[in-house]
Amino acid sequence: MIRHNDPTSLGAKAELAFEDACRNVIERARLSNTKIVICRDDKVVKLTPDEAAQELEVNLAKRQDKLLES
Domain limits of the chain? Predict the structure, then answer.
């Protein structure tokens, strides 16, 4: 996950809040045995909670890699 130099910055707080919200949605979908509906490339896609969790981790890792490169 991306970490700003200043953990009290608005950007850092927003990123942490978004990640927390994503994890909460995934957990609620697990508990209710439902899929998570997202829009990808202008198409509606339904993900299982496990697929969504995996996609979240992959995307967070990609963002972290980009941060480290710059």
Answer: 10-69
pTM (2 decimals)? 0.80
Q: What is the CA radius of gyration of the chain?
A: 14
The H or E element containing residue 36 is: strand 36-40
- What distance in Å separates the CA atoms of residue 23 and residue 52, rounded to the nearest whole number? 9
Q: How far apart are CA 48 and CA 35, in angstroms?
A: 5
Chunked into runs of 10 residues, the chain (70 residues) has average pLDDT values of 66 91 98 97 98 96 81
pLDDT at 53: 98
Q: Answer yes or no: are the C-beta atoms of 61 and 53 closer than 8 Å.
A: no
- DSSP letters, 6-33, are STTSHHHHHHHHHHHHHHHHHHHHHHHT
Within its chain, how far is the Cα of 42 from the centroid?
A: 19
